[in-house]
Amino acid sequence: MNAERKDSRIDKFEKRRKTTKSITLLIIIGAALIILLLFIWIFGGSDKESEVLDEASNEIQRNDNESNDLIIEDDTDEDVKEEKDTNNNEKEAINEDKDKEKDSEEKNKDKKEEEEEDKDAEKNHEVETEQVESPDDNVSKAYKGDWKPIETEQSGQHTTNYDDESQDRKEMEKAIKSVTGLDDDMILWWVGNDGDQQKVVATVSPSDNSKTYRVYLSWIDNNGWKPTKVEELKVNDKR
């Protein structure tokens, strides 16, 4: 943009220089005519003097008007171009500000959602649990609690998706971590259907395999995956 403006100023200067040169030439011509008129006035007749004066005056006036029109037109064109450039720059700046504002709003929204999910997970850690019986001999301990669903980003009719990178899978893992206390080093050995399309069961452990958990989840429409029971296993039967 600076280069274009620089070129524009150079062109403008060149046009004005040519105009100034033309005006100077006209002045010289005018001076010569004046000298000629003085000569005629001294040595010639009055009628011829008047005709020459009128013609010289008209010629000077025409040339002066043409020069003025050229300068005015030149200045106007340059001013209009500079004004357009300024307006374009202002529009670009406004659009950049809008894009930055939109990006900031999206980041704040994502951050808020993450904070809400973290709060749900923290609440589940603090929930009081009740030990229950299990018919499975491989279970050393089983317990239930009034856990909350982990907030979901999904809406509408829900179909369970077990793919590794699916939103469903990510939310399942968050729900499992919220009741087992495991973090990102959690190993998911197995996850599958628990007799209903909206229920799943998963087997997980920490990276050191010091414990093995079997976690049961149920899908709550518009709320997300809710942990319903946790079992601590004697042996990892999915390993």
UniProtKB/TrEMBL annotation:
One matching Pfam family: DUF1510
Transmembrane segments: 21-43
DUF1510 domain span: 143-233
Residue ranges, compositional bias (Acidic residues): 71-80
Superkingdom to which the source organism belongs: Bacteria
InterPro entries: DUF1510
Biased composition range(s): Basic and acidic residues: 81-112
GO BP term, example: cell division
Keywords: Cell cycle, Cell division, Membrane, Transmembrane, Transmembrane helix
Coiled coil ranges: none
Annotated region described as Disordered, given as residue ranges: 54-173
Full protein name: FtsZ-interacting cell division protein ZipA
Organism of provenance: Virgibacillus alimentarius
